[in-house]
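hi got a favour to ask and not much time before my train. below you get a single protein, a line of residues and a line of whole numbers that encode the local backbone shape. could you go over both lines and see whether the tokens make sense for that sequence. a few lines back from you is plenty, here it is:
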Amino acid sequence: MEKSSEKNTSAFAHLSTLSQYIIPFGNYIFPIIIWSSYKDKSEFVDHHGKQALNFQLSLLLYTLILALIAIPIFVTVFLQNLPIEAVFNDNEDFYIRNFNFEGNIGLLSIGATAVVLFGLLKFVEFFLVIYASIKASNGELYKYPLTIPFIK
């Protein structure tokens, strides 16, 4: 049976990943600090710290893949429909006329799907972090789904 302090530390390791909404890279910094401070003292905290970090690193990889799909698609479609006069015109008024969705609907669908998947990923992340912290506070081991074990 895990001690109360181990349960609380493990739950906090998971919850600290939510700091990303306030502090940039807080979802990596705080779990690393917590995990490295307690990994030699408790197997329970070691397990949950690794899980929290592996989950965040997996999400980073998935986000980068989605961004590498969506961003070039949207930039390409935008630049294809940007008239050359808009680039070299000294006039301060900037209008894009005749934006052609018809020729690019396939690409735009793939880009929009990547954006929707990113939103879904962030939504699921929030609830999985809460669920993992509840499991940790109850003294149960938890493994995030679709997590790549970067730290073993």
